[in-house]
């Protein structure tokens, strides 16, 4: 039996209605419904007046949540006050866990942007430090890149890479492909029907595309690849999605197309996602076919910059890249892991700019290539076939994340060419990854050089401190070898 807060039990109906009206706007459409629900769940007679929960005391709200008459997840709607909902939910959690949430901040946050879009059952937010790397010249424009991270040395190391790239003329980028994918799994009676579906979508692509495109102003179907396994059919739809990362949009379009196909073939949709998409899981298909933005960045690092800024040599970089990123990753059976630590930069940039952090699984796929040029300069490139980013939707609307997008000049929808902001973000992230790769690869190779140098010079004792010079050095010599004020201490461990 649920307790009705006492002092409201006999409030006249007119007073209750007036009190509701006084506080109305944001949640008014749902309030009538909720009062009704409460009435019945409290077993209050139909004509007995009850004040809306938004007028209850904190203690009464808490008790009602505990008893189940107010839903834990629904406090925002019931109370009509986001911060109060969060504060009271924290109290419930504290009482259930008997642990304090004092150190988890919750005030001064725009929960209106979170509600219904970014998270449920909200009890606060976790602040992550945001460092700035750069300046980094990308296609002739200078950027300061926000990186949300708790990995010490990452920002400093990347900044050194930015410096080396910018001093050498900057990064150049290309977006080779742009399309998010969704692959539903269908079960059909036989391989014959499976084959007929494949033929149909191939021969009637325009008809399918019209259905797909009708679901959005921005989503445009690019192609459908069919995979058949027994009587299971996977249709990998790929579409452009303007400035959105596009998962919601592509799912909506696919759903509509499946409706159409269901009218033509005997099929059962087992799942709107059949994992051939592939979202948030490692897979070769993204690495080969691409997903989101397929982007690459390159730079030619001048020989004197390699020597003076990166404290290494072209030969050492090339040798290490071959042994580590190419052969080492092959020995490990890696897919998409032909890099030193792309995930570090992708994740830090994703967190700062409101991307879906779980998509770093595939977005961090990266092939790092290093060559020595005839004149001694170093050719460096990163190739990222499945970088999934957007500048509208998801977490990009949250204030801090939007500020970071704004800092890069890519916030929101691109008014002239929808999709250009998201592509630009991909170019900037790929270039930042390149800066990270360059600096870390230099640190590791320099560590090796210094170690050999000390060994050859037979300086007893000195080598002790540089055993970890592959990035984990702690002594002064190794720090100097690694470049920027010992900043590569932890960073070389990847
Ligand atoms: P996602 O598909 O990445 O999950 P959302 O569905 O959350 O993204 O956000 C995309 C929404 O933003 C759509 O409703 C779309 O109509 C709108 N939108 C506004 N401007 C753009 C733009 N330039 N590109 C893509 N979508 C846009």
What structural keywords apply?
disordered C terminus; binds adenosine-5'-diphosphate; alpha+beta; eight-stranded antiparallel β-sheet; 43% helix; 494 residues; 18 helices
Give a description of the structure.
With 494 residues, this protein is α+β, with helices and mostly antiparallel strands. The protein is 43% helix and 16% strand. The chain contains 18 helices and ten strands. The chain has helices spanning 13-22, 28-41, 58-67, 75-79, 82-97, 111-114, 154-167, 191-203, 205-213, 247-262, 284-289, 303-308, 314-331, 342-353, 360-363, 399-407, 420-456, 476-482, and strands spanning 130-138, 141-148, 172-182, 185-187, 220-229, 232-240, 268-271, 292-301, 367-372, 378-387. Strands 3, 4, 5, 6, 7, 8, 9 and 10 form an eight-stranded antiparallel sheet that branches. A hairpin with a 5-residue loop joins β9 and β10 (378-387). α3 (58-67) crosses α5 and α7 packs across α17 (420-456). The longest helix is centred in the last third of the chain and has 37 residues, at 420-456. The chain is globular. The protein starts with 12 loop residues before the first helix and ends in a 12-residue tail after the last helix. 44% of the residues are buried. Residues 1-49 and 462-492 have low confidence and may be disordered. Bound molecules: adenosine-5'-diphosphate (ADP). Adenosine-5'-diphosphate binds at residues 216-218, 241-249, 390, 392-394, 413, 418. Adenosine-5'-diphosphate (ADP) is lined by residues 216-218, 241-249, 390, 392-394, 413, 418.
């Amino acid at each position: 039996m649920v307790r009705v807060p006492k002092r409201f039990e006999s409030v006249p109906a007119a007073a209750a209605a007036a009190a509701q009206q006084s506080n109305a706007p944001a949640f008014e459409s749902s309030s009538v419904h909720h009062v009704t629900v409460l009435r019945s769940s409290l077993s209050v007679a139909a004509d007995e007046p009850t004040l809306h929960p938004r007028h209850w005391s904190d203690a009464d709200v808490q008790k009602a949540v505990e008893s189940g008459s107010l839903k834990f997840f629904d406090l925002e709607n019931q109370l009509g006050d986001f911060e109060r909902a969060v504060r009271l939910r924290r109290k419930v959690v504290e009482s259930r866990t008997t642990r304090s949430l004092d150190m988890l901040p919750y005030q001064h946050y725009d929960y209106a942007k979170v509600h219904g879009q970014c998270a449920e059952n909200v009890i606060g937010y976790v602040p992550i430090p945001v460092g700035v790397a750069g300046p980094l010249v990308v296609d002739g424009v200078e950027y300061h890149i926000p990186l949300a991270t708790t990995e010490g040395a990452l920002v400093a190391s990347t900044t050194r890479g930015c410096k080396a790239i910018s001093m050498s003329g900057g990064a150049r980028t290309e977006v080779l492909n742009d399309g998010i994918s969704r692959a539903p799994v269908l079960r059909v009676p036989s391989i014959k029907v499976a084959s007929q579906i494949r033929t149909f979508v191939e021969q009637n692509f325009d008809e399918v595309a019209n259905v797909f495109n009708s679901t959005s102003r921005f989503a445009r179907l690019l192609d459908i690849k069919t995979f058949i396994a027994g009587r299971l059919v996977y249709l990998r739809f790929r579409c452009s999605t303007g400035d959105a990362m596009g998962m919601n949009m592509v799912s909506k379009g696919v759903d509509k197309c499946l409706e159409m196909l269901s009218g033509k073939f005997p099929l059962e949709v087992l799942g709107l996602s059949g994992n051939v998409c592939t979202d948030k899981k490692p897979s070769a298909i993204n690495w080969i076919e691409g997903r989101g933005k397929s982007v690459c960045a390159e730079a030619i690092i001048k020989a004197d910059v390699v020597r003076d800024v990166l404290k290494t040599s072209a030969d050492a970089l090339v040798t290490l890249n071959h042994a580590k990123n190419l052969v080492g990753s092959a020995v490990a059976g890696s897919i998409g892991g032909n890099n030193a630590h792309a995930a570090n930069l992708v994740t830090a940039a994703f967190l700062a700019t409101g991307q879906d952090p779980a998509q770093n699984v595939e977005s961090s796929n990266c092939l790092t290539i290093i060559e020595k040029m005839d004149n001694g300069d170093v050719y460096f490139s990163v190739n990222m076939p499945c970088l999934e980013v957007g500048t509208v939707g998801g977490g990009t609307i949250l204030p801090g994340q939007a500020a970071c997008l704004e800092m890069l000049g890519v916030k929101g929808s691109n008014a002239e060419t929808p999709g250009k902001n998201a592509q630009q973000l991909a170019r900037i992230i790929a270039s930042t990854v390149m800066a990270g790769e360059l600096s870390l690869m230099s640190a590791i190779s320099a560590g090796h050089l210094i170690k050999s140098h000390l060994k050859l010079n037979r300086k007893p004792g000195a080598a002790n401190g540089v055993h970890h010079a592959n990035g984990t050095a702690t002594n002064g010599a190794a720090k100097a070898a690694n470049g920027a004020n010992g900043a590569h201490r932890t960073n070389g461990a990847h």
